[in-house]
Request: fold
Amino acid sequence: MNIDFVRNDFRFNARASAVIYNKDLSKVLLFNVEGRDFYMLPGGRIEELEESIDTIKREIREEIECDNIKYTFLALSEEFVTDKGYNNHQINIIYKGIYTDEIKETKFKGLEGDWIDFEWVDISNIHQYKIFPNGIQNLIDGSSDSIHLISNLIKQ
Reply:
């Protein structure tokens, strides 16, 4: 069961995600969910009694069927999102990984459904993409060494 609870108009969840670079560190893997105008890092919800490192390994296996990435801790993000009548608070533990295989497709559908689009993005163009949580672009391109990000996103 995911670490996710709702009380009145408040929702809390814990997530693990990863900045996954290709082997020459020129690209990073992002995804977009159908209907959203922003990209995110691959990952997902942490399950009860699951270590976050195990979460990211499981999620990447489920999303793109990849088991050969080694991960190291990169950052912690606190995300506050107001959306669909809920005030959401998400803790996101972010890892760094290197994908060492050859990239066969720069854009592809996730294994969990046609509503998830993955894309290998050139790091030189990273600031042209709207990515949530805020501040991730600077973490990806190395222009920030912050390991604690705080993001706010208000939607209706």
